[in-house]
Amino acid sequence: MTYRKKRTTKETNIDIELSFENTETNINTGVGFLDHMLTLFSFHSGISLNIEVDGDTYVDDHHTVEDIGIVIGQLLLEAIKDKQSFARYGSFYIPMDETLARAVTDISGRPYLSFNAEFSREKVGTFDTELVEEFFRGLVINARLTTHIDLLRGGNTHHEIEGIFKAFARSLKISLSANDYEGIPSSKGVIE
Q1: Rounded to an integer, what distance in angstroms lies between the CA atom of residue 92 and that of residue 72?
Q2: For residue 4, is pLDDT > 80?
Q3: Which Pfam family, just one, is annotated for this protein (predicted)?
Q4: Which of 116, 118, 117, 121 is nearest to 156 (CA)?
Q5: Stated pTM of the model
Q6: Tens digits of per-residue pLDDT, 123-148?
Q7: Could you give the CA distance from residue 17 to residue 83 in angstroms, rounded to a whole number?
């Protein structure tokens, strides 16, 4: 199934297509480091992404990064509502040399992000590391996930952020995977 959303504000013009079919991923956000992280997210989650963004990066990257997270979250929420069976819970650790990152995700319908990461540097190239949390907050809140992201060890800031993106992608992939349970995986009978 493929999902698409266009979102236009005074700050960004975003067009994202998200697919669970193994299609090609093309990402052009105008923020090179984010393109790299989203390509890794796509590969490790098994979710194909086509992203075109025209943002006010002449100001800084904040609006672009946050708004992309919001739209991906909205598309994931649509996809979750269409799924007939999913595991609901997923957790994953990613080691990258000196770095260890963990992500734990619950497709709960209760939006909450716990983000615990102290990056070694404030920037990777021109990318502000504080924007990593902004991206995940936009995604998690709009997808209505409960997610805990922890940077357990670090040293190289690129590795730290990459480990977080990969760990989240893998935890999401596990959460979305089909399981033997028929229907909604909640004792309440509903996830909203």
Answers
A1: 20
A2: yes
A3: IGPD
A4: 121
A5: 0.94
A6: 999 999 999 999 999 999 999 999 99
A7: 17
